[in-house]
Amino acid sequence: MHDVAIIGAGVIGCALAYTLSSYDLSLVLIEKENDVAMGASRANTAIIHAGYDPAPKTLMGKLNVEGMRLCYQLCQELDVEHRNTGSLVVAFEESQVNLLKTLLHQGIENGCRGLEIIDGEQARLREPNLSKEILAALWAPEAGVINPWEFALAMAEVAVRNGLAFMPNTEVTGLQWQSDHYEILRGEAPPVKARFVVNAAGVNSDRIHQMVAPPAFEIIPTRGEYYLLDRTVGPLVQSIIFHSPTTRGKGVTVSPTIHDNFLIGPNSEILEDRTDTGVTRKALDHIKDMAVQMVPSLDLSANIRNYAGVRANSKQGDFFIGMSAEHFLDLAAIKSPGLTCAPSIARLASDLLEEAGLPMKEKSSWQGGRRVIRFKEIPEEERQVFIKNNPLYGRVICRCETITEGEIVAVMEREIPPVSIDGVKRRAGTGMGRCQGGFCGPRVLEILARESNREPLSIEEDGRGSLILTGETKGGCARV
Ligand SMILES: Cc1cc2nc3c(=O)[nH]c(=O)nc-3n(C[C@H](O)[C@H](O)[C@H](O)COP(=O)(O)OP(=O)(O)OC[C@H]3O[C@@H](n4cnc5c(N)ncnc54)[C@H](O)[C@@H]3O)c2cc1C
């Protein structure tokens, strides 16, 4: 019997697992996919929001600034890639300048520091590639960018080190309250038992909620699509540039990534099918028009990938957080800025669980911290020592990103090892560059199969069922 079962290993479930792992509790994190961060937590704009966007008095408004500051602190502690870039919301018309004033006042009330409205000239002094048509901008120095899946993974890794049971490939299909605990159903497999259940199931959080309580909110799945530009496009902008926001999203952005690429997007489209992460020509054209309006020199021929994520928006326009049934906590409808708020949501959740009767005794043996070897960032003289101690660091597997075999083997030895090619990509950074894994993919497959004692034929590209090889040929394996 577990004390707490968390459903959903997105950034919210991982942040809570991390927070609770410092207490003497038996924890299980249940995830339907084969890895952590397989939902919205991997397909988003990767921005640490400063906190001016949500209306004060909403949960989002209360949790954003605290979450933002905790994000920076955790990134330091857990060696998660991030950069404090600052952000600019730009206005082309007077009505949008008024909106900037509203955002400024909201931000001040929410506790943001250093916000100011600057005129077009001042904005272009900061960012020379911005359009001459821009009248004014809201500067927010505390905003930044983060590696979102590494953030979730880092917190989950530390939690596993401290006793969390991670249960991937496990879809929760029902919940039954049995007077002092839940039976968590998972198809034909025996149920998992836990005294408390936390719903962190992203776009499915309404479905999980309705397994134990009457409907209280409705998820409106809202897709956002993106261009990812190669870093050869050069230093277009240093900070995150936002178009003025709308009710459905924060507006199209031109945003640097922690790997010096650029993300352009997202749009905002309400979906019938909440699993639909396809991209459409229409949306990409709209994004392009909005982005080029802000940065006219933007060259979208540097595009190396398009992708989409689905927001767990809801009708009430705020997070839905609270004890909704006996020993059942909803961390639901966590739309943007959910990535930024993950650590503050986890703190709030931990308080709510304690109030609901979960005994919280701090562990004396908790082991925090995390360090990652990023070979290309190591000074040349130290690299030689690495290679001498482990010749695998002398073999470059991903040429675009200069990732060595030593780094791939190292991620296989972490608390939650990757099980797919993209799992290695999210941990080691292979396939993140211009060729998007075209060259290194087969090598990564070989190493993954070798290190995990699996048949190459069983290795998937990403999610369950995404097999790459179909069968043996004379000299090796045939690709799909
Ligand atoms: C397009 C877009 C842009 C965004 N940009 C930003 C941004 O720049 N900054 C920011 O702060 N926020 C941003 N967000 C919001 C942020 O990404 C989300 O709020 C956050 O990732 C939500 O995390 P989560 O853990 O609640 O959901 P998810 O990451 O979706 O995780 C939920 C998990 O639950 C699992 N699950 C679902 N059903 C079941 C089941 N029945 N059994 C077991 N497991 C289940 C899913 O597989 C999934 O892994 C953006 C979101 C989107 C979509």
What share of residues are in beta strands? 15-25%
Overall tally of domains: 3
CATH homologous superfamily placement of the largest domain: FAD/NAD(P)-binding domain
Each distinct ligand? flavin-adenine dinucleotide
- The first-level CATH class of the largest domain is given as Alpha Beta
Radius of gyration: 23 Å
What average pLDDT do the residues reach?
A: 94
CATH third-tier fold name of the largest domain: FAD/NAD(P)-binding domain
State the separation between the terminal residues, measured CA to CA.
43 Å
Give the helix tally: 12
- Bulk shape: globular
Spans of at least 5 consecutive residues with low confidence: none
**Number of E-state strands:** 24
The CATH architecture classification of the largest domain is: 3-Layer(bba) Sandwich
Global structural class: alpha+beta
The largest β sheet comes out as: 9 strands, mixed
- Can you give the helix content as a percent range? 25-40%
Q: Can you give me a brief rundown of this structure?
A:
This protein is α+β, with helices and mostly antiparallel strands and 480 residues long. The chain is built from twelve helices and 24 strands.
